[in-house]
């Protein structure tokens, strides 16, 4: 009986760890997003202190993170068990928003290098909008 209980406990522990391994804050995409958040914050500080050169480098780093994020699948799609064409369409929508975000970042890098501060302000606002669009469409509520 005791042995049976122990076996049950072991099975239950190993099963639950498998389930939690794919939880929503444990994805590669989530990791890239945390990097994006940190880099965005540092870029804003650079802009505020007038260090456009450093900010432009960060815009470039952000592009590389979004390029990596592009090939990931949002957890929401897994949680909703999307399959077939629905999954294909949603993935295409996701990569489109990522691509639009990369275009904003490329323009931002150019504006920072040329010191066009009104354009920089506009494009930082555009990044905020990309974030809103991306999260409202593809981020799970968890
Ligand atoms: C300035 C731009 C962005 C910032 C600072 C940002 C930041 C974050 C952060 C911190 C998280 C972790 C969860 C949370 O704390 O809410 C997250 C999650 C997420 N973000 Fe972003 N994000 C940005 C843009 C985007 C864009 C453009 C997309 C989509 C095209 C996107 C899609 C997602 C998704 C899908 C998750 C959930 C992670 C998962 O499904 O595994 N984000 N983001």
UniProtKB/TrEMBL annotation:
Task: Show the Gene3D superfamilies listed in the entry.
Answer: Cytochrome c/b562
Q: Name one Pfam family in it.
A: Cytochrom_B562
**Segment forming the signal sequence:** 1-21
Alphabetized, the UniProt keywords read: Signal
Q: Which GO terms describe its cellular component?
A: periplasmic space
Looking up InterPro entries in the UniProt record yields: Cyt_b562, Cyt_c/b562
Protein's name according to its UniProt entry: Cytochrome b562
Q: Which organism is it from?
A: Marinomonas polaris DSM 16579
């Amino acid at each position: 009986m005791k042995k049976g209980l122990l076996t049950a406990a072991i099975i239950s522990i190993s099963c639950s760890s498998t389930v939690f391994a794919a939880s929503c804050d444990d994805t590669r995409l989530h990791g890239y997003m945390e990097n994006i958040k940190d880099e965005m914050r540092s870029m804003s500080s650079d802009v505020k202190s007038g260090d456009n050169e450093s900010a432009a480098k960060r815009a470039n780093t952000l592009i590389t993170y979004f390029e990596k994020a592009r090939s990931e699948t949002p957890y929401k799609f897994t949680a909703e068990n999307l399959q077939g064409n629905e999954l294909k369409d949603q993935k295409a929508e996701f990569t489109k928003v990522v691509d639009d975000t990369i275009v904003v970042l490329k323009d931002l890098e150019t504006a920072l290098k040329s010191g066009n501060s009104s354009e920089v302000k506009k494009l930082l606002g555009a990044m905020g909008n990309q974030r809103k669009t991306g999260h409202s469409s593809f981020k799970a509520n968890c």
